[in-house]
Design goal:
Elements lengths: L1 H25 L25 E3 L4 E2 L2 H11 L5 E4 L3
Antiparallel strand pairs: 1-2, 1-3
């Protein structure tokens, strides 16, 4: 019985560490941010390269191009992090 309890504790610790690793890599859902699409006059975006990682796991060259994708397809894509996915 003690062996089973010890195994469960180790399994829970491993699952916690794995979840923390995934959250550090991809960000937590509560930390996703909504792009500020109102600041861009679409269609047409600046050509600056300032990549963002979308919640669809695609890397966009900048926030404006993510906003274009949102408006074209009526997608609800959030920004997971600044930089590539």
């Amino acid at each position: 019985m003690a062996l089973v309890a010890l195994s469960l504790v180790l399994l829970l610790l491993l699952a916690r560490d794995l979840a923390a690793s995934v959250n550090n890599q991809f960000g937590q859902l509560s930390e996703y941010r909504t792009p500020n699409c109102n600041q861009y006059k679409l269609p047409g975006c600046p050509r600056n390269f300032d990549p963002v990682c979308g919640s669809d796991m695609s890397t966009y060259p900048n926030e404006c191009t993510l906003c274009m994708k949102i408006r074209e397809g009526r997608h609800d894509i959030k920004i997971i992090q600044s930089g590539p996915c």
